[in-house]
Amino acid sequence: MKNSLSYKLYLSLLKYGSILNVLGTVKSKDIILCYHDLGSNVWDFSVDKSEFEVQMNLLQKKYNIVGISDLLNKQHKNTKPNAAVSFDDGYESVYKIAYPVLKKIGAAGTVFVIGSSKSNPNMSLKLLSIEQIKELHKNGWEIGWHTNKHVSSVNESKDSLYMDLKISKSAYEKKLGLKLNYFAYPFGKYNKNVETIVKKAGFLGAFTVDGDAIDLAKGIYRLSRVTVSKSITKQHFENLITPIGLKINHFFTNGWKYADYFLKR
Ligand SMILES: [Zn+2]
Question: Which of 144, 180, 196, 248 has the fewest CB atoms inside 10 Å of its own CB, making it the most exposed?
Fold first, then answer.
């Protein structure tokens, strides 16, 4: 995917296309970033520590970095728009790298954990321990659910998805001694049926990786996040977090949906 023509086009559009921002007075909206692992691991979703630090500093210049609940409840009335930083799967690097980097700039993030370590999507990486998750939470981090077995919600039967989101989640909440109020769709995949089950299971909101700014009009079970991968350089990132950059990103990250749409016709 990294070397595909469309991905190259995406990166160059991101690099130069955002120059269009100077033409308009497009107002920035609130955004939520989605990371996975941090560090020098050979994985598209492992972002170097130094790159992450640069990105957080750039983010802080344009946005107020707040928690997911504060962002959704509009607790912060500032001149700058709000941004939240989230991590999927719950790798140990969230504790070892993201936590201190964000702490240094007075911010905290959100981590969406998976219940079963046997279902780790990247077996070469360690997942957070219960103790590490608890400590993050004590220090202002929000903890959300990302399913027990990291299965694509759209391929699960209604019953098994409900079991995961209700029963497995409750068992994990007991282990942690805290509530998991928000859900991140594995692989960013969702549909109307999945949304209904997520709601029924009692979640206060659910997050996609649709790559756009937050649009509350779409509903609280379709909250868009912007995935940041290893190939995003400083210049890409600077442009990515602008209104035009987010539109370009949204178009390219929704390829699977457009493909689905045309295949069904
Ligand atoms: Zn995941």
Answer: 196
Ligand 1: centre distance to CA 119 (Å): 10
Distance 260 CA to ligand 1 centre (A): 21
Pick from 157, 229, 233, 245: nearest CA to 193: 157
What integer is the mean pLDDT of 222-231? 95
CATH number of the domain bearing residue 97: 3.20.20.370
**Residue 246 Cα, ligand 1 centroid: separation in angstroms?**
21
User: Could you list the residue range(s) of the whole structural domain that residue 259 is in?
Assistant: 5-263
Long-range contacts made by residues 98-105, C-beta under 8 angstroms, separation at least 24?
A: 98/35, 98/38, 98/52, 99/136, 99/139, 99/141, 101/49, 101/52, 101/53, 101/56, 102/56, 102/65, 103/139, 105/56, 105/57, 105/60, 105/65
Task: Quote the ligand 1 centre to 238 CA distance (angstroms).
Answer: 25
Q: If you measure from the C-alpha of residue 79 to the centroid of ligand 1, how many angstroms do you get, rounded to a whole number?
A: 33
pLDDT, one tens digit per residue, over 152-211 is: 989 999 999 999 999 999 999 999 999 999 999 999 999 999 999 999 999 999 999 999
Q: 27 C-alpha vs ligand 1 centroid, how far in Å?
A: 31
Q: What count of other Cβ atoms lies within 10 Å of the Cβ of residue 82?
A: 24
Number of domains in the chain: 1
